[in-house]
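User: I'm curious what two different proteins look like when written out as structure tokens. Can you demonstrate?

Assistant: Sure. I'll show them one after the other, since each token string lines up with its own sequence. Here's the first protein:
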Amino acid sequence: MHRNYHIEMLYPNGVRMILDNSFENGLRFEGTEGWVFCSRGAVRVTSSDGNANEPVDATRGPLRSSDRKILSPLGADAKRWPASSNHYLNWLESIVARRDPVAPVDQAARSLEACAAAWIGMKFNHKLTWNPEKEAFVGDDQANAMRTREPRKAEYDFIRLMKRIGLVQRLGSPHTTGQ
């Protein structure tokens, strides 16, 4: 558990992402026309989150902005993402159906990469540099050693899960096909 942390990530395109335990639980996007903040309202994150037991200010709402016009309804020609009430299930269904999930895989992978890099960064008291092409930290063997680990629980074992729900039989497994 990480009670106190401050992480800054600078992307090659100049976007800066800041994670800090003192921030409200949610995401704040800042741009040239103002900001938008979104959260899951009163829904909390996992129980291992150090802030999970702190009260939530439900009066502020899960979606707000610096200017109400930013949140005005989209026009009929606006791009909309399909809805999904369960991203995990949608992803598994997409594998079986051999179609794209609601959340684009490349974007999801990069988002998870940032989360994992941040978590690893919390373990050290020095700056880390991530190389997205090599998917490795630059010049830090200790941080790189933390990029993989055994599943904490059997139910987190991806290959075991795929076998249990029949995906390995339908799709084949890189562990059994030599791919």
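Here's a second, unrelated protein for contrast:
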Amino acid sequence: MNINNLKSWNLKKNLFLLLIGLIAISAQMKAANDGYVVKFQIKGIKDTTCLIATYYGSGTYVKDTIKVDANGRCTFKANADYPKGIYLVVINDKNYFEFIINNDKRFSMETEKKDLSGKMVITDSPENTLFYDYLKYNKTHFAEIQALQKLIVRGKTSKDSIRLIADKTEKINKEIIRFKLDLAEKHPSSFVAFFINAMREPEVPEIPVLPNGRKDSTFGYKYIKTHFWDGTDFTDDRLLRAPVFDNKLKKYFDNVLYQSPDTIIKEYDRLIEKARPNKEMFKYLVWYATYHSESSEIMGFDRVFVHVVDTYYLTHQATWERQSVVENLIKKANRIRPILIGQVAPNMIMLDTNNQPVSMYAIKSNFLILFFWDPDCGHCEQEIPKLKDFYDKEKDSLGLKIFAVCSDSSLVKWKSAIKKKKMDWINVDGPRTLTGNYHEQFDVSTTPVIYILNNRKEIIAKRLITEQFLQFFKNYIKQGTF
């Protein structure tokens, strides 16, 4: 290449690089112009720092900090792709106000520390103006309801007065609902409309009459279940940054749905599938199903947890989660799986007080209670007398036996406790086992823990307390599964 060609090539190269640089700068300027700039002035504070937080599910989380100057002014800036939702300017734990990030990109909010919401003045944001009109309306009408409730004095207010107060309260509630629906209809693209529709729950129409002349007693439940999520877009992650979605999920799964593992599993899968197109919503609903099934105290709901782990973690769909967390969830599900209700309990062969091996499978009875306990356990101290009383009264009528597994390795302490508490049932020493670690087999980390088996050694109940036994056995026998 001669010198002239080289100069020409360098010139073209420099022009190309310059063009690329200009495009990049232009893109950055466009992104900056398209982004959010929110100016605040808070009279009553100066030379400090405020937090920018957001709702997320059931909590609030800090997203950013902004510096406040000597005149109480501060500015929040964010890119155009900043997650939309309701945000908070937090002065301290007790002082904060909300603002919406959605359609309006550049606006200002001015207020006073002594009355943040009441003194709010908003410029260039129809959406936040609408939001504060909504908040003000709610505050005023809820205050009216509270004032009416205070008129009721227990034992002194007449029935007629209580009825009148109830009628007035109902009227105000209807006005609030009508105001919200009108607002959502007039401003359909606003975040407030989105927020209102997310909160909305179905109103049951008139109950139809069946051919036999009676009203359909199941109509209300079916209607609410079918229409509970009408108007909810599970692909819109703004739901997560408003304080409504988590509460509505909780109400649906705890109060609306029939509390059986099969029903809960079906609905978790249905809603998660609806959310799948939106990564953030899919992630949240999988987390919600995981957390609530893992921490549920309803007997048998550990099967929901196992299903969630098998469906979403074992199949590598929870890509956001750390590998160590996924491994621990799978490990826990694998530990629980063999002892789900309906499974045949793993056998235990342990030495009794005569140093003789006793096999749990060899015990013949209609029902067998597995009782894991410890001589030094305070809760066991309270549970054992109740269990003994139930056993003495019901063992013959139920065909009941107890297989009590002591967790203490001290033979002296174990035998002394048996004698003192008159535990005249099958007593074995857990540490002296021929069938492995019962802690792992039966997921026993604390005491007492109780399982109930049928005559086929299938688990029919777990982690009950003695007060629940009588009703459980009545229901189980009534079902005809025995």
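A detail about the second structure: The chain is about 45% helix and 20% strand.
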